[in-house]
Design goal:
By secondary structure, the protein is of the alpha/beta class. It has 12 helices and 12 strands. α2 crosses α10 and α4 packs parallel to α12. The longest helix has 22 residues.
Length: 319
């Protein structure tokens, strides 16, 4: 297909031109998860707001599958001309290389860091049939009901999966993990009493928590969440675990560092706009922004923290 027809046919967002800079010709943000969720909204907002710093047209393309791997591999080895950029969760970039029997990518080798974009949090949620009002009470309930220790996670190989493994070790209580396809069925089964607790994103659990359908008894962030200031953190509850997650932006290996810095600055400037902050916080995302170095530091810290936890579980994906 001819390039003009391609651009004309995409639901793109115009960018102001800065002639003479080939790397500014960004045309695609590859997001490896489904349209309509928080990360997809984040991509579309920053694509629209980066207009003052970049050229051409940005198209957000959802390439789903493989718990994020399909989209990541689409950008890996891509042309380093600024025409393709990856936006995905931090955990996909540090957990997938840990759990694949043969890693499909090396984050440091195959990608150039651009910027942190936004943080989000996880929540430990119990159903209405659990006789507990806080985390300590729930732990006592689990000990008294060893046959009812099943918990739901949105998918295997994810942060909630390994949070459950850490809880099992720290509490000394055998727990049974039940993988689901996303948060919605977890919350439904909590309400129905089919599982005892779930670990989901805080944003997904908040509506039912506020409606008294389920109860959030702890959040995974370092400090209490601005979205649920009445809920203690796991650390406050005696569990040495901080497990917030985040979205980041990367370019293919070989992309010029100067362009990565420029792109990161444009993304950070977009995230700092009050109207963008308002829209993101409304869906449970905390906008941050960073330098490429800041993204690298965050990735390294998360890798160092989770690697021994993941290794201890022995969990692997055969590929």
């Amino acid at each position: 297909m001819d390039r003009r027809k391609f651009m004309a046919g995409c639901l793109g967002l115009p960018l102001l031109a800065q002639a003479g800079e080939a790397q500014a010709g960004l045309s695609k943000i590859i997001f490896p998860f489904a349209a309509g969720a928080g990360g997809d909204t984040l991509c579309r907002l920053i694509a629209q707001e980066m207009a003052p710093a970049l050229q051409r047209t940005i198209v957000v393309e959802n390439r789903t599958g493989g718990d994020g791997l399909i989209g990541i591999k689409a950008v890996k080895g891509g042309s380093p001309d600024g025409s393709m950029v990856l936006v995905t969760t931090g955990p996909t970039m540090y957990l997938l290389p840990m759990v694949e029997a043969t890693p499909s990518f090396d984050t440091a080798r195959d990608f150039v860091p651009v910027s942190l974009l936004a943080r989000f949090e996880f929540a430990l949620v119990i159903g209405p049939g659990i006789d507990a009002s806080d985390f300590k009470g729930f732990v006592d309930w689990l000990k008294a009901h060893p046959d009812k220790t099943s918990f739901g996670v949105p998918s295997n190989g994810t942060i909630p999966h390994f949070m459950g493994s850490k809880l099992e070790k720290d509490l000394g209580i055998p727990l049974t993990r039940v993988p689901y396809r996303g948060s919605a069925p977890i919350l439904n089964d909590l309400v129905g009493g089919h599982i005892s607790f779930g670990i989901t994103t805080l944003a997904d659990a908040l509506p039912q928590h506020r409606a008294k359908g389920v109860k959030i008894i702890a959040v995974s962030s370092a400090e209490r969440s601005p979205f649920a200031p009445d809920v203690p953190t796991l650390k406050e509850s005696g569990i040495d675990l901080v497990a917030d997650a985040w979205y980041g932006m990367w370019l293919p290996a070989g992309s010029p560092p100067e362009f990565a810095s420029k792109l990161g600055a444009a993304a950070s400037a977009a995230l700092a706009k009050p109207e963008v902050k308002e829209k993101l916080t409304a869906i449970g995302l905390i906008p941050v922004g960073s330098t490429p170095e800041g993204l690298t530091k965050e990735l390294a810290a998360n890798t160092a923290f989770w690697q021994p936890i993941v290794k201890a579980t022995g969990y692997k994906i055969e590929n």
